[in-house]
Structures are given as C-alpha cells and as structure tokens.
Amino acid sequence: MKYDTLLFDMDGTVMETAPGVIKGFKYALSQMGLSFPDVPERFFMGPPLEYSFREFVKLPEERIAEAIRLYRVYYNATGIMECEVYEGLRELLGRLNELGVKCLVASSKPEPFVNRILKQFGLDGCFFFAAGSDLGGRWGEKHEVIARALEEGEVTDISRCLMVGDRSYDIIGAKKMGMDSCGVLWGYGTREEFEESGAEYIAQKPMEVVDIL
Predict the structure, then answer these.
(1) Which residues are 133's β-sheet partners?
(2) 12 torsion bin: left (phi>0), alpha (psi -120 to 50), beta (else)
C-alpha cells in the first residue's frame, strides 16, 4: 500500500454535522441581536469558529469570544447530536481497519466534542486517536491539529500518510505538513475547491478511498 496512515476530517467527512453547527451559529447571532449573513451555509463548515465569525459574520474582534461562548451554549446542549454518519463511512472504516491502516481524526472541532460524537455513534473504536482543537484555542489551525494527530498517533513517516477531508482547509493543512491529501465530494466542498488547493486525489464515494491506497 502507498499509505498506511489516514487522517480524517470530522465535519463533512465522517459526519454530516451541518444541522447542529448552523443552528449553533444562528442561535449565537440571534442572542447578540444579529442576523445570519447572506453567504452559503457551507462556508461555515470546516474553518475554526473564530475564523467564521470574523470572516463571514464580520464581527469585530471584541465580540468574537462572546459569539463563540453563545455558540457553544447551544452546541454543547443540543447541536452536538444533530448529526449523522455519512452513508458508506462505517464500511470504509471497517475495511481500512481490516487492512491494518492506522486511522486518525484531525478536526477543527474541539476535541471533547469530537470524542463525544464518535463514542455516541459507535465509531470511537475505529480510530487510533482523535485529535481536535482545544477549547482554550490551542491547535486552532488545521496543520496544528494534524501535527497533534500525528504525534499522538505515533506516526513518523509522513510520506505514507494521507489527509482525507471535504474542504480546502484540509488540503492546505496537509500541504503545510508535507503530506498528500484527498478531497471528498460527499461533504461541503467542491471539485473546483480541491483542484485549486492542490489535492492529490478526489473521491466521490467513501469506498473510493480504499482504491487510492
């Protein structure tokens, strides 16, 4: 096999999490007396919360921390479980486990949320380690959480690693770490987005990832 370690993004790659995430943004903004911006909802899927509130909502810096706090009030209570596993993902992870591929999660979502979702949906046993951002702001950039996943996953040969994600942030983060990447079309990204950001592979269905190996 060309790759023996696969890193998976969470939102839009393993889980369809948009319902809870978008409701979290709308709740936070409504509590602040603001409306949801006139941009596609998929833009909010992938980047860190701070980035989204700054770039898409155009919040001033002094209001971002409060927006994140309000988002998490909703998400931690309700939004976290407003999601589902993508069709074909259980089969993909099962096959990768059979082949002896080390599977890791590298997500911009806070690590406690990542692990709670994986356990709730019975996917925690499919991954050697699940890395996410820190609630205090550490590992906020994609390449930082990838680095954490590799460290905790005891991975040393990056040339045999493949990042699998649904947004350009995943592809760019992988490039910063010097590893190959695969963009997936069942999430929130587009083929054009992956081509522009330089993904080595693009998969339309989950089991196509096995063929890349």
Answers:
(1) 110
(2) left
What residues are labeled active site?
A: 9
Name the one residue in this structure whose structure tokens are 């309000």. Answer: 70
> Is there a single domain that holds both residue 159 and residue 177?
yes
For 68, other C-beta atoms within 10 Å of its C-beta total: 21
Q: What is the pLDDT of residues 182-207, one digit of tens each?
A: 999 999 999 999 999 999 999 999 99
Using an 8 Å Cβ cutoff, are 114 and 10 in contact? yes
Split into its structural domains, the chain has a count of 2
Residue 58: both structure tokens together: 């155009």
157 plus 71 within the same structural domain: no
Domain encompassing residue 171: 5-16+84-212
Among 12, 3, 7, 47, residue whose Cα is nearest residue 147:
7
